[in-house]
Design a protein that fits this description.
Blueprint lengths: L1 H22 L26 H9 L12 E3 L10 E3 L11 E5 L3 H12 L5 E6 L2 H11 L3 E5 L7 H11 L4 E6 L4 H9 L4 E4 L4 H12 L4 E2 L1 H16 L11 H11 L4 H8 L3 H15 L4 H11 L2
Parallel strand pairs: 3-4, 3-5, 5-6, 6-7, 7-8
Antiparallel strand pairs: 1-2
Length: 306
């Protein structure tokens, strides 16, 4: 009877010790051995050493469910109902942007894929050489970024860009071009593309462009930027188009009469029109030829119409 009571007491004491380890507590004054219950003593379980106590307080100690694939260690001096759990699982990483490459040159596609695979920022999900091959795959895969060469095999880089952005408005599009062409550059920007990079740009420039458009911003290759500003300055300095072809036949009839110094009333009488009609025609001539005075209209006719 006494032996049974002693066994029960030791079981209760062992459970209490296990509970302290599970909760991560090691309070001072906690009993390190079972209470004496009579004359027949059983061997006392040795207390943990200082190094073991510090390990138990810093590690995550819990009972591991069978469903968790974890690294379980049991110490020789630990109670059998406690485990030291060292998780082998890592936190899930956020999804990297998926990239699709469209380029007619296999060497360029391989080089671009190798570059992107060398960094952790991007994941290449597909590639194609032509518009026909690329569009179905892009619409199926729905990549975050498409790197599109303007010289796709079927020669429809601008149309391909429009189709991609129309069907996948959240996809970011980076144009890759082999030269600076004013018309192509303006057409590319007009599609709603998010970046424009020259094909001979360095690896860091291409990666910087991709990271920039991933953040929702736009990117122009520095060479393209300089060229664009030069082109805009040229447009600003260009004189407005002027020519008789801009005027209607009735408006053209006014110019020689104005050059002769005739008044609106005299012109109206000669052409069989009302003064009000002549004033309206004259206003149109000023607007179309970017003029403000009759003398300028006369000078224009003498220079371009005679």
């Amino acid at each position: 009877m006494r032996n049974k009571k002693n066994l029960t007491t030791r079981i209760e004491w062992g459970c209490a010790q296990a509970g302290r380890l599970v909760d991560g507590r090691s309070a001072a004054g906690d009993p390190q051995e079972p209470p004496a219950t009579g004359d027949h003593e059983r061997p006392v379980i040795p207390p943990h050493s200082n190094s073991e106590a510090s390990t138990a307080s810093s590690a995550t100690v819990t009972k591991v469910p069978d469903s968790v694939g974890a690294n379980i260690q049991t110490g020789n001096n630990r109670h059998p109902s406690t485990f030291t759990w060292k998780p082998t699982m890592t936190m899930p990483q956020s999804k990297t942007p998926h990239v699709f490459i469209v380029n007619p040159q296999e060497l360029v596609r391989v080089g671009m894929r190798t570059l992107l695979e060398s960094v952790a920022d991007f994941t290449v999900v597909g590639e194609a050489a032509s518009r026909m091959d690329a569009l179905p795959l892009i619409l199926q895969l729905k990549p975050d970024i498409v790197i599109l060469d303007l010289r796709v095999q079927d020669g429809k880089g601008i149309e391909t860009a429009k189709d991609i952005l129309t069907n996948l408005p959240t996809t970011r599009l980076l144009f890759l071009a082999d030269n600076l062409n004013d018309t192509i550059l303006l057409s590319a920007v007009a599609t709603g593309a998010h970046g424009y990079v020259l094909q001979d740009a360095g690896a860091e420039t291409i990666l910087h462009a991709l990271r920039t458009i991933t953040r929702g911003q736009s990117y122009l290759d520095p060479s393209v930027t300089r060229h664009t500003f030069a082109y805009l300055r040229k447009l600003a300095e260009r004189e407005p188009e002027r020519g008789l072809h801009l005027l209607s036949p009735q408006e053209q009839r006014l110019l020689p009469l104005i050059a002769q110094g005739k008044t609106n009333k005299e012109i109206a009488a000669e052409l069989g029109l009302s003064d009000k009609t002549i004033k309206n025609y004259l206003a149109n001539v000023y607007t179309k030829l970017h003029l403000t005075r009759r003398s300028q209209a006369a000078a224009f006719y003498l220079k371009h119409g005679s």
